[in-house]
Amino acid sequence: MWRASVITIFPDMFPGPLGASLAGKARAAGIWDLAAVDLRDHATDRHRSVDDTPAGGGPGMVLRADVLARAIDTVAPATDDRPRLLTSPRGKPLTQARVAALAKGPGVVVVCGRFEGVDERVIQARNLEEVSIGDYVLSGGELAAMVLIDACVRLLPGVMGKEASGAEESFSDGLLEYPHYTRPQLFEGRDIPAVLVSGDHGRVAAWRRAEAERLTRERRPDLWAAHAAARDGPSARPAHVPGDAPKKATDG
User: Fold this and answer.
1) Distance in angstroms (rounded) separating the CA atoms of residues 87 and 140
2) Residue 168 has what pLDDT?
3) 133 in a known ligand binding site
4) Does the annotation flag 122 for ligand binding?
5) Domain 2-153 of CATH type 3.30.70.20
6) Which of the four, 70, 142, 165, 183, has the lowest number of CB atoms within 10 Å?
7) Which listed CATH number (3.30.450.20, 1.10.1270.20, 1.10.1650.10, 1.10.260.40) goes with 168-231?
């Protein structure tokens, strides 16, 4: 069983969205397990304090190294080989490749950042891997932890209906996902691209690949540059788009 342990000062926020949809069904089926641990349970004073003022002065509060270390040691002792992650805006961006690697392992221990941050000494002493879900700041790391866990859980065997569902989506091969269409055939003057109803599976696959490349070039030049360099080198040229392209919306 894939196990996720979350250390937080707001355990009541969990399971939250993780209790619904695919993640909730998978948890009920015993595919994965979630434990939300209250950091305040590991404080030693009568006020259950987990933070203190920053050394050197400044605004806000900092999570204490000693309290957090006790919580980590209780949740994940030395024999626990799960990665120890800290949700932090200064962490490495979470990628689909990292998510896939985490999903193949035994699970994760996630420390939810709060206040101004976490005492650097516990990050070093407990080998916490700082992870960010984007270049913005949240009130705390709980929502980021949910995002990370959900991304992992949906890749576990038996969670998604079809294996191809995860193999062809955005970021699976360094590209954004191609556009999707369904009934009705005609919607407000916009038709489904003819190639998708041609019955020619080869042309459909080629169209989808070309559209994925087009969208990636237009919307995520950073991803496209990395993809092109890995595939063809810096001189990669845009792929030819076979078949009919979807109609563009116009004003008026």
Assistant:
1) 8
2) 60
3) yes
4) no
5) no
6) 183
7) 1.10.1270.20
